[in-house]
Amino acid sequence: MIKNFVLFGLAFCLTSMHASAQPDRWQQRVKYTMSVVMDVQTNRFTGSQTLVYTNNSPDTLDHVFYHLYWNAFQPGSEMDVRSQELGKILINGHRDWDSRVRDRISLLTPAEIGYLKIISLKVDGIQQALVDHGTILEVVLSKPIAAKSKTNFEITFQAQVPLQIRRSGRDNAEGIRYSMSQWYPKMCEYDYEGWHPTPYVAREFYGVWGDYDVNIKIEKSYKLAATGVLQNAAEVGWGYDQPGTPLKTIAAERRSWHFIGNNVHDFVWAADPDYEHLVRKVDGVTLHVVYKKVDSLEKNWHQVADAAVMALPYMEKRFGKYPYPQYSFIQGGDGGMEYPMATLIKGPSLGTVFHEWMHSWYQMMLGTNESLYPWMDEGFTSYAEGEISAYYDKLMGIPSDTSLPLHHAGAYGGYYFLMKQHLEEPLSTHSDHYNTNFGYGINAYSKGEIFLEQLGYIVSDSIRDKILQEYYKLWRFKHPNAADFMKVAQDVSGIQLDWYKEYWISTTKSIDYSIDSLWGENGVSKIRLRRIGDMPMPIDLELSFKDGTREIHYIPLDLMFGNKPAESNETRLMHKEWNWTNPTYIVEFSHPLSQLIQAEIDPSRRMADIVSKNNTLTLTW
Ligand SMILES: [Zn+2]
To answer: 135 CB contacts (<8 Å, ≥6 apart)?
Structure first.
């Protein structure tokens, strides 16, 4: 999703690199076959679901859990109460609740609420015992599911589409009739940590990998876009069969739309009678842009389609191949929210377009448990968004922001601001359990984005890029966790990085280095550096001299047990490692002291040093 908070206001030795082993962690598998009939007058639908559930775990399961997300859109729900409680917190005069949710759930009438009701849930024809937990349904199985076995669940359900509050719903601010996300009974994930029955209170998802076969019957004038490939395109028309074809005329009152999406962990669809449809093809992928025509924005929606075509080759080069047959940019929802092979976006903003599409990598393929590691999807995606936006701007000749660190200065600014507010919490906080929305937003998005940019500072940008590619190769279509990513990063870089995860992810300790003092001694020039912050880092120190030359002095951190390669053609002088326990370190250099005009710690500004003014010493002789 996109961020919804407002900022007020050569020692490297390639031969030591060893490939990571293929992960052998088991994971569950689902195959959903669903059929729904929508009544556009009452905004209700009935559905049937067959779920073939493969228990690949070594465990016998005597109960299972389902998400029934839409029960959140009822007065008094956990989402409602949580939002109102956050609204009591004032940060710089602003209420901390999500501006889309506020207290709106409490005001919904019975015809406006959302619900997802299970009519029957059977295994082998036997009705199962159900325990209602609001947005989570617990099923107590009459017969446990044995390890390494398959079970068929048969569900019939009824639902009412809520008035659009958050992500899904009807009649959103842009007038889209149906934004259909989180709309069906969805099996919770069971993994090596056990069940993850996370109540729907705000954000973040985690799903089981599998295949979806979905048939939607809806009033015939409605036009649809969804996860997956439309199977009856010839019957439907509307650009799905051939470019520019109209929606086919049919006699029946309702039309069926049949989509199949394979190897995904969720399924979204959206419907509106006034949708327009642009189609593009790039690199074997069909792109759909589906939006409601507003003349003043028409050009921008075409730009979305063109920009997507231009960006994909670069996205694939940097982050790995997009493996699905299609992707749909669908106008809907309330901002930007990612789903497999599709996104719901409010409007044609290119930043949002790049962001949501990049979630196809960081969440839809690299399926982290977002509740536990929101920084691994929102942070990594925000990082990629910055890179792609910069690439696109360059391609289009649009002047780009040259603030340091390039393409990511906004994230650093957000993080520094958070630290000033003293609202920081460790990145390892469960995404629903942050004390404030504000803290969650900056942590997950900005501090997560910095994690990757700063990793470039530690191991070099080029090695960081290789890490991301290896991560993709090893972990796509799986559920990587933070330790898995760090293992790949260490294996590719040959640098020990456990300390980086520990400090940056598990604590709120921060970085502050300073230039302490400068003197000459027996003809040797010396600079003392001081670590003021609690978090240790390797140091790039740039010295500039009167004769116009510059040199980089590189001081690895002892905990790294390695060095990054040189990152530029500038002279680089290696120093012995800085033991993290020492608050100071003395750098010696050969130029006479009187030749020095400036000393600067990390001129690239990729190191998130919270006090920048003590990083530079400028001398006037
Ligand atoms: Zn996002």
So the answer is: 67, 68, 69, 71, 72, 77, 78, 79, 199, 200
